[in-house]
Amino acid sequence: MINIAGVISIILFYVLILAVGIWAGRKKPAGNDSEEEVMLAGRSIGLFVGIFTMTATWVGGGYINGTAEAIYTSGLVWCQAPFGYALSLVFGGIFFANPMRKQGYVTMLDPLQDSFGSRMGGLLFLPALCGEVFWAAGILAALGATLAVIIDMDHRTSVIFSACVAVFYTLFGGLYSVAYTDVIQLFCIFIGLWMCIPFAWANEHVKPLSSMEVDWIGKIDPEYYWFYVDYGLLLVFGGIPWQVYFQRVLSSKTAGRAQVLSYVAAIGCIFMAIPPVLIGAIAKGTAWNETDYRGALTPEGELTSEQTSMILPLVLQHLTPDFVSFFGLGAVSAAVMSSADSSVLSASSMFARNVYKLIFRQNASEMEIIWVMRVAILVVGVLSTIMALTIPSIYGLWSMCSDLVYVILFPQLLMVVHFKKYCNTYGSLAAYIMALLVRLSGGEKLLGLPALIHYPGWDDENEVQLFPFRTLAMTMSLFTLAFISWLSVFLFNSGYLSPESDYFNCVVNIPEDIRRVDEPSEAGEQMSVLGGVPGRLYGAASTLVGPDEKSGRINPALETDDDDLDDPNDGPTPLFGNSSAPPPVQPFGKQTAF
Q1: Helices of type H across 151-254
Q2: What are 322's strand-pairing partners?
Q3: CB 178 within 8 Å of CB 342
Q4: Proportion of the chain in helix, strand, coil states, percent, rounded to 5
Q5: 3-state DSSP call for residue 459?
Q6: What are the protein's UniProt keywords (predicted)?
């Protein structure tokens, strides 16, 4: 029977979130529907809201549910997500936030398309898109299961209702709505969960956490050391190349502030992990066979593996009074909203800009792009909802996609941001294929994908790769990108390959006067298409490319941090030191290929 009080509690939380989302959407200047206004809130996110929305990059439904589950099943030492994602924000702030924000990019894929061309950028869009969609689907499915446990609401109804609310206010206000609702959602998560902890801890069926009978710390067996390191590196560096993160970075007022927000949000990630850690520990110390829980239990009186994913809602339901559990339930629902809305906006932003505009409709107007993005928001929301309702192994799909983000996108983003002169489209495509093959060869048990290669330390009983093959795939991808890029330059510059063989037109520029007069015009048109759009634009004035571009194009939207200004009357700083000096030569030739 449906719990009416619980349904009312959920509706109240959702109405609050929806009201704030609509109110925030009205902050967008009337009539200003530019890419930056909708996708990046006009790059005007302030410090207070920025801290909350940056923290909400990772603190969501999957974060708090997963943390509680990890504590219960494996112990604190195996709860790597809070520390891993916090470090990813720190490293993102140190190495990526400043250069990305200073360049005035609109999405994470902009620097990749700037270096490798729009077509290769479209290929790199695939793992990013799948990661966002499957992540949103996974947490919506988790919400459905949570509501089914606590208030006996049909999980299909709860998933569809939650998705509709998140999509509606995201559609209405873009990043304005996402950012301001993040503030409310984090408050709900923090207050709701902390309100539940004293009641759960004081429950008569919970043993003292200091008791030797309650092992909520866990341990790492020696044979799992490299497996542990592999997952740690996956969280730290694989947590960087996500549009949900760079969406916040690029919406900051200045590059310096983007870095500060990353560092503060890292502290926020650790801080927000404390309540679910305690709830997981309390669940570990609970004698579930003595509570009113009537589900399946192991002979030792512990929850079965099918129930552990719902540790947090089970604690709320069986160890706290009804009125307290409803506040906690609202917190869980708010956490899911916090994750789902930003993932939907991120995926649709990348599609509208980096696929539709830069590949198919280079001359599309701002209004056309905004409408494409709104349609994409609806499509991504519907896809996530359908997957949450129909795919049983949705977590396995997300797990695979997060691995692909780590092994494919991280090395490519690292190279284009810091070593742009040493990579080109040939290296990018080869690295993409290499990373994909190495990762897939390791298998994925959650998807029923068999391991084609048994790396050293293969656990035949559990069918688990104990060798750090994900990090191996990432490292091989990085090496392949640099080596193939160098090799292509060597072969073309040494004359082993003719200029006409430069199919992607990214190593040597082919002068028109050496083409045969009778060469079909289609070849030139093909080369033009493969060469991307020379006028690929970024920034408020839609005229950005980086200050290191060989053609000397300047980004008028380039912002200098207030802290970096020695004298406001000195005038603008020349991009290359001497405004009359030519830009540096790129050894890999044209960088707008494919």
Answers
A1: 155-173, 175-201, 225-238, 243-251
A2: none
A3: yes
A4: 65, 0, 30
A5: strand
A6: Glycoprotein, Ion transport, Membrane, Neurotransmitter biosynthesis, Sodium, Sodium transport, Symport, Transmembrane, Transmembrane helix, Transport
pLDDT, one tens digit per residue, over 445-484 is: 877 888 999 999 888 888 889 999 999 999 999 999 999 9
CB atoms within 10 A of CB 60: 29
Q: Which residues contact 392 (CB under 8 A, 6 or more apart)?
A: none
d(CA 67, CA 280): 7
Confidence of residue 82 (pLDDT cuts 50, 70, 90): very high
Report the alpha-carbon distance of residue 512 to residue 521 in Å, rounded. 12
Q: Which residue in this structure is represented by tokens 């890292």? A: 266
Task: Look up residue 398 and give its two tokens.
Answer: 């997300």
Amino acid at 318: H
What are the Cα distances from residue 210, in Å, to 284, 287, 590?
12, 15, 63
**Residue 177 CA to its chain's centroid (Å):** 18
Phi (first) and psi of residue 270, to 5 degrees: -65, -45
User: What does the alpha-carbon distance between residue 101 and residue 113 come to, in Å, rounded to a whole number?
Assistant: 16
**Other Cβ atoms within 10 Å of 583 Cβ, number:** 14
Contact 170, 178 (CB under 8 A): yes
Roughly how many angstroms between the first and final C-alpha of the chain, as a whole number? 59
Tokens found for residue 484: 């193939």
Rg for the chain, CA atoms, rounded: 25
d(CA 249, CA 272): 20
Q: Which residue type is seen at 95?
A: F
Distance CA 38, CA 177 (A): 10
Q: Which residues contact 528 (CB under 8 A, 6 or more apart)?
A: none
Q: In whole angstroms, how far apart are CA 547 and each of 1, 419, 532, 557, 558?
A: 63, 14, 19, 11, 9
Amino acid, res. 446: L
d(CA 530, CA 30): 38
d(CA 142, CA 339): 12
Q: Which residues of 64-92 are buried (b: 16+ CB within 10 A; e: fewer)?
A: bbbbbbbbbbbbeebbbbbbbbbbbbbbb
pLDDT in tens, 572-591: 433 333 333 433 333 443 33
Buried b (16+ CB within 10 A) or exposed e, 393-417: ebbbbbbbbbbbbbbbbbbbbbbbb
Q: Match 């090496």 to its residue by tokens.
A: 479
CB neighbour burial string for 15-54, b if at least 16 within 10 angstroms, e if fewer: ebbbebbeebbeebeeeebbbbbbbbbbbbbeeebbbbbb
The β-bridge partners of 567 are none
User: If you search the block for the tokens 């589900």, which residue do you land on?
Assistant: 295
Closest C-alpha among 249, 280, 250 to residue 265: 249
- Partnered with residue 173 across adjacent β-strands are none
Phi-psi region of 459 (alpha: psi -120 to 50; beta: other; left: phi over 0): beta
Three-state SS string over 512-558 comes to: HHHCCCCCCHHHHHHHHHHCCCCCCCCCCCCCCCCCCCCCCCCCCCC
pTM for the model: 0.82
How many other C-beta atoms can be found within 10 angstroms of the C-beta atom of residue 62?
Answer: 20
Residue 273, H or E segment: helix 255-284
Question: Mean pLDDT across the stretch 215-225?
Answer: 90
Q: What is the mean pLDDT of residues 87-110?
A: 94
d(CA 350, CA 108) in angstroms, rounded, equals: 8
